[in-house]
Amino acid sequence: MELHQLHYFLAVVDHGSFTAAADSVHVSQSGVSAQVQKLERELGVTLFDRSARRAALTADGERLLPVVRAALSAVGEVRAAADDLRGLVIGSLRVGTVSGLAWPSLFDALASLHEAHPGLDIRLHEGTSEQLLSALSRGESDVAVAAWTEGVPEGLETRVVFDDALVAVVAPHHPWAARHSIRPMELLDADLIALPSGTGARTALDALLAASGRTVAPRWEVSTPSFVEMLATRGLGVGIVSETTCAGWTGVRAVPIGAPGARSRLGIAWRTEPTYATRALLELLRASPAAR
Q1: Residue range of the domain that includes 270
Q2: What is the CATH number of the domain that holds 237?
Q3: What mean pLDDT do residues 190-210 have?
Q4: Which residue, 32, 66, 88, sits at the end of a domain?
Q5: How far apart are CA 67 and CA 70, in angstroms?
Q6: What is the CATH number of the domain that holds 51?
Q7: How many domains does the chain have?
């Protein structure tokens, strides 16, 4: 028994005649007929009643039809899995991250994939969370590391990686340095130092300020947390970052923001039917210490 014989059998069933089946598989009518007859001899049953104008299935043919369909479907799954595996070797992986991302585990995972599969074309680009999630929905990227406050677009799966309290960082001589907490309303009149739109801390800050009913643009918008530290240390404003981000900073004081929703959240998003390369990256990231 050969796979093409099963394909010809289904072609006759689906098209109703040997002639139409031959046209669909681009083989001569006699070739299709001969292969189906060979299949019948190997199985020891008659599959078609050839006395009718159409190729009608016999009772045995009817019983075998779902088995043949299932067998060819299983073969298709094997081929799909093989294509997926081959795609990991010679395919591509497109990853988008928010600007200034400082998450070593992502870069460790990308390095591991590159080392294990040097033929995999890995691309990395930055953008805002909105841009990244939109590109992911359109199929223009495979994985996005982004922030979101509302629900993500339909068709995407997500996992939160960081969920940290939002804090204000100020110089030791700043009036807030001795405070135990700061009310969100107080931030409205401060010279804020913030990361770019789309980062976890900035998304949380924008949501916090929007809840006050006023729109406030940060005085300083910088690309990396180190810039926030350098500006805040010199007393040039109030930096807004996550508690983990500033954990090792020595030249500033971190003051909690007194609001339950003042949290910086960042996560991974991917499409519901990920490629093999995407699944491989997600598996590496799942084992990272920060993931939770």
Answers
A1: 91-292
A2: 3.40.190.290
A3: 86
A4: 88
A5: 5
A6: 1.10.10.10
A7: 2
Amino acid at 278: T
Over the stretch 123-145, which tens digit does the pLDDT of each residue have? 999 888 888 888 888 888 899 99
Q: How far apart are CA 88 and CA 104, in angstroms?
A: 23
Q: What CA–CA distance (Å, rounded) separates 254 from 56? A: 80
- Domain boundary (45, 62, 88) is at 88
Residues 115 and 127 in one domain: yes
What are the residues whose beta carbons fall under 8 Å from the beta carbon of 243, sequence distance 6 or more?
164, 165, 166, 167, 254
Give the residue, 98 or 176, on which the prediction is more confident.
176
Residues 83-89: contacts with CB under 8 Å, at least 24 apart: 84/275, 84/276, 85/276, 87/275, 87/276, 87/277, 88/117, 88/120, 88/275, 88/276, 88/277, 88/280, 89/117, 89/119, 89/120
| pTM over the 0.85 mark | no
Please name the helix (run of DSSP H) or strand (run of DSSP E) that holds residue 56, with its range, or none. Answer: strand 56-57
Burial of 118: CB neighbours in 10 Å, binned 0-12, 13-18, 19+: exposed
